[in-house]
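Support request from a user on the community tier.

User writes: "When I paste my structure tokens into the form, the page sometimes reloads and wipes my input. The last time it worked, I copied everything first. Here is what I submitted, just in case something in the input itself triggers the reload:"
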């Protein structure tokens, strides 16, 4: 059986695409802005590879692409009652839990004392399905996942990375409502160095939060499968 070395988890590669500020350490204090103009982003991901649940909250000024904000003294965000400290590298507040958290509740209190509570839906999952031990880069491959077809505001993402160098990777996504498969295109396959590699599937679901400041917000759940070792040739 092929064994991946897990030199660098694929979880790490997606940090920027999942909402991290690519500049890092550029956040401003939340007390410096109008509290009604704070855009709230909540994200819960279960990573089966590490068997951990990550709860993240990011605050931006004005919109989802505005300046990131670190909550000031007097403001707080919790998940299931646990305070979420600020991660200065990725510009978000985060709490990490062992195992899969099936239910969750975000509570955000701003410096003006306004309280916003949002329940997290059950995380939708999926599995990679029938994938051969060896993938040929000479032709595209149609991957049929195990799980329900995609609904509205859902996405399937596939990552293929060279085992020894996780920064050598390709990415595909599928957003079609009712679909249960995704094509790993030849141009993506040939972009990764041949040899030992790993595949991972991620299922995303976006929701509108029940409670948010006037600027609005979003709530996202993600399920990451375990990494599947393959040979790319």
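"...and here is what came back when it finally went through:"
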């Amino acid at each position: 059986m092929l064994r991946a070395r897990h030199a660098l988890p694929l979880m790490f590669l997606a940090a920027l695409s999942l909402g991290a500020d690519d500049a890092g350490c550029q956040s401003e204090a939340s007390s410096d802005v109008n509290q009604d103009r704070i855009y709230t982003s909540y994200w819960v991901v279960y990573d089966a590879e590490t068997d951990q649940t990550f709860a993240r909250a990011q605050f931006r000024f004005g919109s989802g692409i505005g300046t990131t904000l670190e909550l000031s003294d007097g403001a707080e965000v919790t998940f299931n009652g646990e305070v979420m400290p600020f991660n200065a590298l990725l510009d978000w507040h985060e709490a990490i839990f062992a195992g899969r958290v099936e239910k969750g509740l975000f509570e955000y209190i701003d410096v003006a004392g306004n309280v916003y509570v949002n329940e997290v839906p059950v995380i939708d999952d999926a599995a990679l399905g029938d994938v051969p031990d060896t993938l040929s880069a000479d032709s595209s491959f149609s991957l049929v996942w195990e799980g329900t077809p995609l609904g509205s505001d859902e996405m399937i993402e596939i990552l293929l990375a060279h085992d020894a160098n996780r920064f050598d990777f390709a990415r595909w996504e599928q957003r079609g409502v009712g679909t249960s498969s995704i094509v790993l295109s030849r141009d993506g396959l040939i972009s990764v160095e041949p040899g030992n590699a790993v595949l991972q599937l991620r299922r995303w679901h976006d929701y509108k939060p029940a409670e948010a400041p006037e600027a609005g917000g979003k709530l996202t759940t993600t399920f990451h499968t375990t990494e599947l070792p393959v040979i790319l040739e």
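Agent notes: The reload is a front-end session timeout and is unrelated to the input. Residues 209 and 218 are 6 Å apart (CA to CA). The domain at 10-120 is CATH 2.60.40 (Immunoglobulin-like). Escalated to web team.
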